Amino acid sequence: MPEQTRLQKHLAECGLGSRRSCETLITAGRVSVDGETVTKLGTKIDPATQKVVCNGKVVAKEPTVTLLLNKPPKVICTSDDPQGRTTVLDLLDDLPARVYTVGRLDFMSEGLIMVTNDGTLAHALMHPRHHIEKVYKVWINTPLGYHQLKKMTRGIPNQGETLRVLDIDEGNPSRNGVEYTIVLGEGKNRHIRRLMEHFDKKVFRLMRIAIGPIRLDDLKIGEWRPAKPAELKLLRKAIAGKKGS
Fold this sequence. Notes:
Layout: E1 5-6, H1 7-13, H2 19-27, E2 31-33, E3 36-37, E4 44-45, E5 52-54, E6 57-58, E7 66-71, E8 100-102, E9 110-116, H3 119-126, E10 134-140, H4 146-154, E11 156-158, E12 161-163, E13 167-174, E14 177-184, H5 191-198, E15 203-211, E16 214-215, E17 224-226, H6 229-244
Parallel strand pairs: 9-15
Antiparallel strand pairs: 1-4, 2-3, 2-5, 5-6, 7-9, 7-17, 8-9, 10-14, 10-15, 11-12, 13-14, 15-16
Helix pairs in contact: 1-2
């Protein structure tokens, strides 16, 4: 019996974007299978025998690429920017496949970000039930008080959401300000910056240093490298562990 897969999963695995964005391509009527337009989500196909076309181009699986990038400040995590700002993809060259960022760091934030065309991995990392932990360094103008730290771990209502940290540790004061290491389970938009704004703290610098078991280590600002097979194995193990918990 031929092996079938959901159409949106196949599109994501072929590098057309995250599974959610591929669902949008389908519902917009931009995908056909064997010459017939498909708009129903969940449609199953056999990639080995059926011809899939998106936006007039045949969809074929590309080599799987997963990169680790140390994003500089003032770079955005989108494929294109109408304002002409530098994007993450502008920092990459000579890649054998189309790629997209997994999750985001805001415009002024820096640090570790993953870029891939592995739709299955991207979907797992972004799915809220998995809550892969991410670790950040933040430098602020003055120290947080004991009760403020406790409130952060309990959760703070903000703009209809609850912002909390799994863990927060204070480091030593430096020229960059007072340093904290923060662990997030589920990251909301501008999560750490909103927490600091809540306590009237000024953020001088914000850097992500880890995504699950994958660490930024000595990767210099603006540089990138392929993810190591051992790193991806550990990451998939962490995802599987969260899925089963």
